[in-house]
Amino acid sequence: MTANPSAAAPEAPTLPTATILGYPRIGRRRELKRAIESFWKGATSEAQLQETARELRAATRARLVELGLPAAGGAVPESFSFYDQVLDATIALGAIPHRFAGAVAESAGSDLAVLFALARGDKDHQPLEMTKWFDTNYHYSVPELDERTPLVANPAALVAQVAEAREQGIESRPVLVGPVTYLLLAKASDEAGEGFRPADRLDEVVAVYAELLSALAAAGASWVQLDEPALVSDSLSVPRAEVLALVERAYATLGGAARGTARPAILLTAPYGDSSQALARLGALPVEAVQADLVRGSLPESALADGSLATAFAGTQLIAGVVDGRNIWRTDLRAALATATRITDAGIATGIGTSNSLQHVPHDVADETQLDSRLRSWLAFADQKVEQVAILARGLESGATAVEAELAATDAVLADRAAAPGVRDGAVRERAAGVTEADRSRADEAARREAQRELEIPQLATTTIGSFPQTTEIRKARASFVRGEIDKEAYDGFLRAEIERVIRLQEEIGLDVLVHGEAERNDMVQYFAELLDGFAVTEHGWVQSYGTRATRPSILWGDVSRPAPMTVAWSAYAQSLTERPVKGMLTGPVTILAWSFVRDDQPLAHTAEQVALALRDEIDDLVEAGISIVQVDEPALRELLPLDADRQADYLDWSVGSFRLATSGAANEVQIHTHLCYSEFGEIIDAVDGLDADVTSIEAARSRMDVVEPLGDHGYSRGIGPGVYDIHSPRVPSVEEQAELIRIAAARIPGEQLWVNPDCGLKTRGYEETVASLTNLVQAARAVRGA
């Protein structure tokens, strides 16, 4: 083995061989969610909320040490957040938009009050826009910057957490979104001058980061983690080469400061994708450690072989992200150890880490007592991934023989998974092999539009996205049915009564196209996962989506098929109650994949095709039952777009193809809708058009119709419903506010194409605000329609 170059530079600190980039922060039983929502309701104080947060942070640190991370040396990341990590950076930078001056004045000095005002808005302030974090289902609050936005270091929360950890006997590592990624995720505020880009303020932001690092050093932090996933993305406002140049500029300043007095040692991370082309230049920066995602990315083989990577990393540690932080399958430990060993053999100081923060996976497989034991043995949630990191670190330090028992056990599990019944189904694969391009094509748009005139839908038609509030009564009834306290007849009766109530409410409000409200659905993906072969669901597998919103991704482990109709009875019953059209509601194949933990043993395209065929059968049955409008939601279409530009065309081809396979069996008279949300649609407008849906509803309220311009420029010719009611905030938008958004859209989109709807489903809202907002929505549409 080549000598480790760090041995010649003992003054350069290294992280322990085992570390992770972050850990789930909502609590093993969503304790943080409940505490925050109790605070929002006024049932508990800020002091009580802060105490709950301290307890959760302490429990996380203790658990990570118990699982094998060293208590010393900064191996334990301090990745807690009350809402989201980008918003935390906004608070730490003091970068509060001018329009929130009133909220700041009313906060009485509480950073938490300001944070929640930015995240959720209030009666006087629309919240910050929200969008997806790279290619994940996690959402962040988009910073708003202009030339005058204040930048004032606010290290209080970071410093307090370092002190908490030290009192616990643990040396934790504070985690911050890096300055370049922060600025490239930000948007220019409405007050910005023409041509302003948030990145124009890089030097000022870096100066504030330097103050934050200095405060952390003074508090005793020996390490800090700065996350720069912008390094691996081709989907930002600047080319990847320019991102790297900005990173070099920022870290020349941050890393150039005297370590130990002006700053802690720096771990610079490049998670979520491939940083191989930039890795040598990152290793040459004046930082102490660099992380590379080696699950979605790779090593620069030529630089590894010729020694130039080792030269670049002289005195710098490379954290090999060989444990997947995005999926829940057990790591191939033998292969992961071989990768890490190749790096050390090349003469580079190496540590074992995760590909990204574990915030994207649930806490612990051991909690899933209802899962099939065989399936459970194939899985690794956050706690198991930390254990895997610790095993690999031992193997790296002491050689593979030291962990041979663990390697052999993993080999056996991987072999068992490959051979298990249901992983491959001959009938499913034969049907998929017979799909032709004709199965992905409908009649031309003009013929469909003419046939659908019989639906008699007015201009500026009003509708909702699908779900209505999931009330306490609904959740109680579902829980009682699951526990066997009420039988199926009683539960179905309850659901029919709820559907009738929602139908009558929509008629009273005056909506044109109705929905059945989805009272029977626990989740827009899990509901289908419970009814399709090839899926399993969890009890406690919660993963944060944004703020206090968490989902339980289903586990797609085998070939997918539909044993029986899934939605037909409920949609048909709803339609029997009214003369107005009721939409059948399905979740699309791409979104079912994106919001599940999907098998990793075959291409996603193949799995999407199987799901699409199951949905195609469901649409056939809905139409047979008298449903004339079917909505197939694809809110995750943009989410799964690869960060690497050279992989995007292939993804868009199969993702659009799977949607069309699901929907193209519908006759001309059947109006196919879809729904997309929280995405930068401009870059995938061709794909949105390629879906060939008759009507597409999209998130647009927080961005004030930003999507309308690219749609107009593209010449989009089918129905479009840009959302005018932001359902992710408790605000009730007024008639005037929603009418203004409709007029903005109508200025670029012909009235016969334009629909009026909320941004997304109403599941998380309460009925009082929902009724008020929808009433205003209908009145706004009528006002614009009659103008």
Can you characterise this structure?
By secondary structure, the protein is α/β, with parallel strands linked by helices. It contains 29 helices and 23 strands. The strands form seven sheets. Strands 1-5-7-8-9-10-11 form a seven-stranded parallel sheet. Strands 17-19-20-21-22 form a five-stranded parallel sheet. Strand 14 (543-546) and strand 15 form a beta hairpin. Helix 24 (604-624) packs parallel to helix 25. The radius of gyration is 26 Å and the shape is globular.
Q: Can you summarize the main beta sheet? A: 7 strands, parallel
Point out poorly predicted stretches: 1-10
Beta-strand percent range: 5-15%
Instruction: From the alpha carbons, calculate the radius of gyration and give it in angstroms.
Output: 26 Å
Residue-averaged pLDDT, rounded?
95
Structural topology:
Layout: H1 31-40, H2 46-67, E1 76-78, H3 85-93, H4 101-106, H5 111-120, E2 130-132, E3 139-141, E4 144-145, H6 156-167, E5 172-177, H7 179-185, E6 187-188, H8 202-219, E7 223-227, H9 240-256, E8 265-270, H10 279-283, E9 289-293, H11 301-305, H12 308-312, E10 317-323, H13 333-345, E11 350-354, H14 373-377, H15 382-398, H16 404-419, H17 426-433, H18 445-451, E12 461-462, H19 472-482, H20 488-509, H21 526-529, E13 533-536, E14 543-546, E15 549-551, E16 554-561, H22 568-576, E17 583-587, H23 589-594, E18 596-598, H24 604-624, E19 629-633, H25 648-663, E20 671-676, H26 685-690, E21 695-698, H27 708-714, E22 719-722, H28 735-746, E23 755-756, H29 767-785
Parallel strand pairs: 1-5, 4-6, 5-7, 7-8, 8-9, 9-10, 10-11, 12-23, 16-18, 17-19, 19-20, 20-21, 21-22
Antiparallel strand pairs: 2-3, 13-16, 14-15
Helix pairs in contact: 1-2, 8-9, 13-15, 19-20, 24-25, 28-29
